[in-house]
């Protein structure tokens, strides 16, 4: 039985570097700064207020490439094949498969190479775990991470 981590949150402005890298992200603050959800990179889905669900490659952590170990822990979702604006929307995020740990890369190029692999892996995983198979998310407080059985 698959298990998901589910978190709701309102998309905050990032520092826009994601756009410069070519991989914009929807940034969501996490309430539990060191809770059950570990740092890492995940394949999953996001749900928009209008009910639309979109596949995503999701990063949870402190972005060690840019901020070092004392950075702020947040969730960033790069939504696959999407170019719209999500700022201010309250999203539901389903984290389904842990792909790898957060890494400190030597260059933006190395991070971009990793991101491309993450996106391919997330596309593959979401194809096998379609949006209509996701468990109900419920209404949890914003930023609070919950485990939900699939
Ligand atoms: C799928 C994915 C994987 C990521 N993996 C890492 C990582 O391993 N190390 C890291 O420092 N940052 C990682 N990041 C975060 C990027 O550094 C971050 O998206 C970028 O700096 C843009 O930040 P911004 O949204 O605040 O502009 C990842 C982001 C995504 C979407």
From TrEMBL:
Top EC class of this enzyme: transferase
Residues spanning the signal sequence: none
Pfam families assigned to the protein according to its UniProt record, in alphabetical order: Flavokinase
Documented EC number(s): 2.7.1.26
Region (Disordered), start-end ranges: 131-150
Gene Ontology MF terms in the entry: ATP binding; riboflavin kinase activity
Entry superkingdom: Bacteria
Matching Gene3D superfamilies: Riboflavin kinase-like (2.40.30.30)
Alphabetically ordered keywords of this record: ATP-binding, Flavoprotein, FMN, Kinase, Nucleotide-binding, Transferase
Ranges of residues in domain Riboflavin kinase: 1-127
GO biological process: FMN biosynthetic process; riboflavin biosynthetic process
Reactions the enzyme catalyzes: riboflavin + ATP = FMN + ADP + H(+)
Protein's name in the database: riboflavin kinase
Organism in which the protein naturally occurs: Amycolatopsis vancoresmycina DSM 44592
Lineage: Bacteria, Bacillati, Actinomycetota, Actinomycetes, Pseudonocardiales
């Amino acid at each position: 039985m698959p298990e998901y981590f589910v978190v709701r949150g309102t998309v905050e402005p990032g520092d826009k570097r994601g756009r410069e890298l070519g991989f914009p992200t929807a940034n969501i603050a996490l309430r539990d700064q060191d809770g059950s959800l570990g740092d890492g990179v995940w394949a999953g889905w996001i749900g928009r207020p209008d009910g639309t669900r979109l596949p995503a490659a999701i990063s949870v952590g402190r972005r060690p490439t840019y901020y070092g170990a004392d950075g702020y822990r947040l969730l960033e979702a790069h939504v696959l094949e999407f170019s719209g604006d999500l700022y201010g929307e309250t999203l539901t995020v389903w984290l389904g498969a842990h792909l790898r740990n957060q890494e400190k890369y030597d260059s933006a190029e190395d991070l971009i190479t990793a991101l491309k692999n993450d996106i391919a892996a997330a596309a593959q995983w979401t194809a096998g775990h379609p949006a209509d198979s996701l468990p109900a998310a419920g209404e949890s407080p914003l930023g609070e991470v919950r485990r939900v059985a699939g």
